[in-house]
Amino acid sequence: MSTQSLELDTDTTVFPSEHPLAGCESSIDGLRDCGRLFHSRGWSVGTSSNYSVVLSQDPVDIVVTASGLDKGALRRPDFVRVGPDGKPAFPGQPKSSAETMLHVVLAQRPETVGCILHTHSVWSTLLSDHFFPQYGFEIYGFEMLKGLEGITTHDTHFWVPIFENTQDIPALARQVEQMQRQSPERITHGFLIRRHGLYTWGRDIAAARRHVEIFEFLFECVARTTNLIRA
């Protein structure tokens, strides 16, 4: 274990009452745990990925990872509190992730959303490119589908939508918001961005983290059964 990891594991920073992150220490630690797990699994390598907890859905008030950080070595101060416009809600904070507006849109879903997680795995990247001509793909019959909130049987036809990758995040956020409004049955637990990665969410950190793990299991199953790889 590196010295940095040892220091991370003992980070007990407590923010003063006037700090934007005061009172969020426990939630932040939950996201840091996700970062360590996802980094170890190869789902958040380099400085990729971003994670958030939702403090309020209306108006949107979230705490999201700061930009350009190793997700396997996050510290408590490595987060930003942002408002409905996706910008830091208080002065003096670090720059938030470039994809913060996607978190803002997802925080406004009609169900309770307490956490949003974005990862970059090999399987999600390959499948998002392979199935992009159909703008998504169906997963059916796998027992692990029951790990997604509200699904009670493997006898389920589950659709994973795919959006084109773009550096115009506000435009992408509008596309996601439009699907949520017009076709909510087609964007229920997560989505892929082409050649990019997965976005998923849950009522709390534990649920969202479970969804990442379930999706990754299912993505590998789909990739192998569709002969996407030949090894």
Would you write up a description of this structure?
The chain contains 6 helices and 8 strands. With 231 residues, it is of the alpha+beta class. The protein has one domain: L-fuculose-1-phosphate Aldolase (3-Layer(aba) Sandwich). The chain has an 8-stranded mixed beta sheet, with helices on both faces. α4 (122-130) packs across α6. The longest helix is centred in the C-terminal third of the chain and has 21 residues, at 205-225. The model is unreliable at 1-8 (pLDDT under 50).
Q: How are the elements arranged and paired?
A:
Layout: H1 3-9, H2 25-41, E1 50-57, E2 60-65, E3 79-82, H3 100-107, E4 115-119, H4 122-130, E5 136-140, E6 157-163, H5 169-182, E7 190-193, E8 197-202, H6 205-225
Parallel strand pairs: 6-7
Antiparallel strand pairs: 1-2, 1-4, 2-3, 4-8, 5-6, 7-8
What is the strand tally?
Answer: 8
User: How many alpha or pi helices?
Assistant: 6
What's the rounded overall pLDDT mean? Answer: 93
Poorly predicted sequence stretches spanning 5 or more consecutive residues: 1-8
Mass-distribution shape = globular
**CATH domain topology:** L-fuculose-1-phosphate Aldolase
Strand order of the largest sheet: 3-2-1-4-8-7-6-5
Order of helices and strands: HHEEEHEHEEHEEH
- Can you identify the CATH class? Alpha Beta
CATH H level: which superfamily? Class II aldolase/adducin N-terminal domain
What share of residues are in beta strands? Answer: 15-25%
Total domain count? 1
SS-derived structural category: alpha+beta
Helix percentage: 25-40%
Rg on CA atoms, Å: 17 Å
Largest sheet: 8 strands, mixed
CATH architecture: 3-Layer(aba) Sandwich
Alpha-carbon distance between the termini?
Answer: 32 Å
